[in-house]
Every structure is written in C-alpha cells, then in structure tokens.
C-alpha cells in the first residue's frame, strides 16, 4: 500500500511498483488517514510518504499501525532527514527510511528487506545521521560564524535592523547615515549572504544563529 499527502506521487509510485510485479492494494492520500486504511486492508508493506519527518507527531500513524497490525512493515518515504527524523521513524516502529528521490530499484530493495524483517535504510543516511549526532552543534554554529566573519560591523548592524523589520528609512535614521548609503549596505549584505531579498537574509540569519552572535544593537549617540 502506498500512502502520501500528494495523490499524484502515491499513484505514480504504485503504478511503477505494479509494472515491476508487485501487488498494490491501494494508493491513497492524505497520509493523515493512513493508519485506519492500513489497519483495514492489512498489507505486507506500507509505504508512508512525509515531507516533514522531524515534525512532532508525524509518525503517530506508524505507532497505531504497529499496535493494531504488528505484522505490517512500514517504510517511510521522505526527504533527507535530520537524525531526529530517522530516530523518530524507527522509534515509532518503522521498518525503514527511504529518500523520496530514490530510484524505483532502491524502493524495491527496501520493500524486500522490510518483508524479510530487516531494517531498510541506506548506509549513507545512517552515516550522515551519526555524524550529526556526534557533532550536533557544529554545522549551524560554524555556518553562523562563517557568515558573521564575512560582514563588517556596520553590515552586521544593518542585518540586525533588517531582521527587526526596519525599512531603508528607519535603517538610515537609526544609523545616522543617508538612505542611499543604507540601501548600499543592504545590497552588500544580501550579496555577501547569497540571498535575493531582505526576508531571505533575515531567515538565514535566524536559522544559523547569526543574530544571537551579533547581540543587541548598542544605543547610538545622535551626534556621532
């Protein structure tokens, strides 16, 4: 059985599996009703698609399926997950995790492993998960520090003000500079961060912890 929030994806995967000789009981959407459907139809394997493997409660249907139909092997199909996503899937009782951009041959191998009672997860996914678990803060901290080092102190102030929602006029007034100069600083910040808009710059700064590293703005002397 194939269940995914995107019906087109579920039906496409089901068709591909049928062409390879597998019997597909159903291709359904949305994934929110997966548990009841699987419990009713009792397939050997359920392919459960998700776009947010780390979201709390995402794998509650897996828990319910395994409680009511422990013989059903559940394979999660999703994006490259965080260690939390992989751990949550297996903790809920999933038999494997398959990237949603995997070739049909890879999906088929995962199905065979799940049927045989083996854990179906690509070694590179496990390696990546273990690496992140061993160095949980390295990636975001390093990225935030790297971005911070790319900016001058004035550009950092501009970024903080952008993240606070200030427009060019407010940035210029708050920093005691001309609006044209403020616009130039904003453009340089966007270019250095490799983003196309102020909203993207603010989101990147928040995600990487750059704003926390920058600290609060110091009060400015109006005459300076």
Automatic annotation (TrEMBL):
GO terms for molecular function: DNA binding. One of its GO terms (biological process) is regulation of DNA-templated transcription. Residues 144-209 form the HTH luxR-type domain. SUPFAM superfamilies: C-terminal effector domain of the bipartite response regulators, CheY-like. Coiled coil: none annotated. Keywords: DNA-binding, Transcription, Transcription regulation. This is Two-component system response regulator.
């Amino acid at each position: 059985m194939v269940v995914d929030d995107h019906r087109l994806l579920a039906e496409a995967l089901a068709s591909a599996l049928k062409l390879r000789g597998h019997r597909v009981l159903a291709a359904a959407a949305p994934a929110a009703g997966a548990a009841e459907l699987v419990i009713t139809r009792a397939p050997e394997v359920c392919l459960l698609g998700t776009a947010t493997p780390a979201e709390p409660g995402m794998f509650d249907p897996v828990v319910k399926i395994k409680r009511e139909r422990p013989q059903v092997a559940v394979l999660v199909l999703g994006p490259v997950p965080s260690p939390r996503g992989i751990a949550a899937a297996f903790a809920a009782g999933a038999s494997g995790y398959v990237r949603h951009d995997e070739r049909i041959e890879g999906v088929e191998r995962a199905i065979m492993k799940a049927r045989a009672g083996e854990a179906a997860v690509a070694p590179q996914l496990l390696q990546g998960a273990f690496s992140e678990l061993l160095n949980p803060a390295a990636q975001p901290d390093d990225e935030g520090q790297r971005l911070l080092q790319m900016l001058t102190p004035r550009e950092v102030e501009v970024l903080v003000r952008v993240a606070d929602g200030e427009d060019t006029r407010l940035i210029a007034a708050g920093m005691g500079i001309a609006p044209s100069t403020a616009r130039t600083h904003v453009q340089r910040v966007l270019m250095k961060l490799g983003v196309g808009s102020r909203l993207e710059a603010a989101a990147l700064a928040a995600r990487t912890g750059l704003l926390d590293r920058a600290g609060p703005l110091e009060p400015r002397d109006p005459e300076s």
